[in-house]
Amino acid sequence: MPEKYFEVRWHGRAGQGAKSASQFLAEAVVEAGKFATSFPEYGAERAGAPMKAFNRIAEVPIRLRNNVQHPDVVLVVDDTLLGNPEITDGLKEEKILVVNTVKTPEEVKKITGFNGKIATIEATNIALEEIGRGIPNTVMIGALVKLTDIVPLDVVKTKINHAFAKKFSKEIVDANMRAVDRGHQEVKING
């Protein structure tokens, strides 16, 4: 019997935090007692260049090491990438497209042609309001957790507290906690 993985593909631009979000998600999943992998794929390695990151999550050890071809969820960290057909490549209509945008799910559908479930979150705006920087990755993780329950929110928050407290002030840790909460609360889905 083939192993079933829950697969996530992130689309963003280098420097926006998609790689870090993918790694953070994998670490939180492992903390929750599951198996997870995280790995990026870069084109031209420069800030602002399109890039992808991938996660595989399972109840069993993960042996597959290739890129995610048929994701359960696609997260788009930068909505200027929406016109790229690669965004929805391999994404079946019963799966979820999550986009950091001020656009509605209906507007995203018109741009992408994707007829499945589309969720939107104003992640950059939330990050600016809460953290003071336009790095939307913790907000996107909050939205992903809400839409999939792949890892409990309290595990993500514990991981944020543990990982960020080593490097940042209590104010920044608290700001990221609020950002993940807002991502969890404010994500909108069309169906």
UniProtKB/TrEMBL annotation:
| Keywords associated with the record | Oxidoreductase, Pyruvate
Query: Has the keyword Phosphoprotein been applied to this entry?
Result: no
Lineage top rank: taxon: Bacteria
Query: Which terms in the Gene Ontology molecular function aspect does this entry carry?
Result: oxidoreductase activity, acting on the aldehyde or oxo group of donors, iron-sulfur protein as acceptor
The residue ranges of the Pyruvate/ketoisovalerate oxidoreductase catalytic domain are: 14-184
Name of the protein in question = Pyruvate synthase subunit PorC
Organism in which the protein naturally occurs? Tepiditoga spiralis
Q: What gene does the UniProt entry assign to this protein?
A: porC
